[in-house]
Every structure is written in structure tokens, then in C-alpha cells.
Task: structure prediction
Amino acid sequence: MQPMTNFKLSLLFLFLPYFLFCQSKDFEISGTITGEHNSKMYLFFEGNYKQRDSISSIIKDGKFYFKGKAPMPIQARLHLDQQSFICDIYIDNSQTFIQCTTKMEINNNGLDTLNMLSIVGVKGSATNKLKNDFETWLENLKKSKASDGEKNEAYYQKLSNFIRKYPNNKVSSYLLGKASTLSYLQVKELYTFIDTSLNKTFEAKSVKSLLNQLEKSKNSAFGVAFQNFILRDSSGNEVDTKQFKGKYTLIICWASWCKSCRTEHPDLNVLYSKYKEKGFEMVGVSFDEDKQKWKQAIAKDLLQWKQTIDPKAFEGEMARYYDIEAIPANFLLDKEGRIIGGGLTPAEIEAMIVKFL
Result:
């Protein structure tokens, strides 16, 4: 085989595996953005975050534009040129139109910024419409007055119907990979309805990761002693997790850049205030690589519970031992340091605390 000389094609290898190259198609993404932002928008595909700066577009007059090749449908992920949330969409056509909005959060006397990027509209992608319609339904469910049990059952039934209707669509795997509130057995059952042709996709890896997490935290790990770790707090002092034996303890893995983690913080603050004098303790384990941003997030979110950091993040000892590939993640321990729950919502945590205390 003769080596490729086409420069544009060689760029493609920065972010797409070779075996997918023959399936690649031309795409164009046109977008508009409102709100506070700097000069560039970036695009990467699936989990290839290490090459996420390979494709960029200047933002001019509130508009940006991308052109390239990719196997479609594919999960495209966008972020801005300063620290910002990563937004996911699916492209499945030669032309896609995106509407974005953003709001800049500035902290530390202007030295630290967090851009609250969000996508408010996508045209030209039937695959993304399936994703968006389901996520909109789910957001409305969360806001409803139904009990947590009723919400969870409705979520399971809706997702089950979706997967059975679209077993060959990547969105089925995408949505299932985010179903962390379902049980291990529920996720495992729904995975059997997804066509095996998707087994090697990026989305399938997320489902397998979730299954591993649920199996360890909600099934096989029940009653097993928590593996203790020595971490450091914001002053650099060592914190050994075994020191919390004698109290019911919640270990919470989070990071300053994790939107879903920080969304839970107000509810977790309330839990800590209500039960800290009744034999309940909480310990945060940050997966931040930037300690300054971690400390700023602690101050901004008014976190009063013990905070530690593992700057090795997902390559750290705790993440590798418990196969943590996504956050937020948590473990609820009894007084003897045994795991009695994991992957819990704040409502589920409080229900267990009330039961035991």
C-alpha cells in the first residue's frame, strides 16, 4: 500500500481510527452563538478528547463553521477556547445547523473563567432529534411531582420502549450509558435489546463502564469493606479514609468541571447540615488536576464537608480500584466501613440515612 500524501486526509488520523476511514463522509457544521465568549469553538468526536483541539473554528459575528470527514452517525462534541462545558450532539448528514448560547462565570478577580456553554437547537440531524426529544422528556419527568420510585419506573419503561424501537441506533446506547439511576439488572436487561452491530462503538463502551460501576457499587460490593485510601486535603495534610469508621460515611467523587456533580452540591450541603450531628460524615474526593480550580469550586459551592483531592483523577488508585470512569460517583459506608450503597442520588442517600440513623 502506498503512503497517503493528501494533507487533509492525514489530519483525519488525528482523531479517527483507521478502520473507520473507509466509512467517512463529508460534513459541514454551521453554528451561531449568543452570550459571552472568546474567539474560538472546538470540535472533537466521541471520546477522543486528547485531540479535541485538532478542529477549531474562529467565531466571527456570532457564527462558526466546521468542515471535514467523519463516519456518520457520530457523536460530535463542542467546547469553547476557555474552560467550558462539553456539549454533545449527533451528526448524520452532510449539513448540520447548531444554535448555541453561553454565559461566562468569572471568579478569582477575573483570573478564572468557566463558560456555561449549552446547545439550544440542532437542525439537519434526525439522530440528534431522537436524543433531544428523549432528554427533554426526562428533564420534564425530573421536574414532576411524582415520587422518586414513580420517576424511576417511568424512566425505565420509557427507555425500554425507546431501545426496543431503535435497537440499531447509537442513541439507544448513548442514553443507556447515562442511566446511572437504574439498577444493574435493569441496565443489563436493556443492553440485550441493543443490536450487536453496535458492540464496538464508543457508546457501547459507556454502557459497559456503567455496568461495571453498578455491579461493583450496588451488587457485588454490598457488605464488602471499603478499600481505604490516603489522600490530601486543601492544606496538604494526609487524610486516611479509615479514620471515618464509627460513622455512616458518604464518599463523593467529583470535579470542578463536572456540571452534574456540582448540580448535586446544594442537596448534599443540606444533607450534611441535617445529619452531621447524628453520626453522619461526608468526604469529597476531587478528580481535578488543577488544585486552584478545585479550591475555588469548594468556596463557590459553599462545601463544608471534608474535601480531599486525587490529582491523578481517573488514573488514580481509587478510580482504578473501583473502575470509576465517570463522575459523579459515590459510596455510602456503614459504621464498620462496609459499602452499603453506591451510585446514589441525594434522595436515595437521605432515605438510607434516615433508615440507619
Remarks:
- Residues 5 and 11 are 11 Å apart (CA to CA).
- The mean pLDDT is 84.
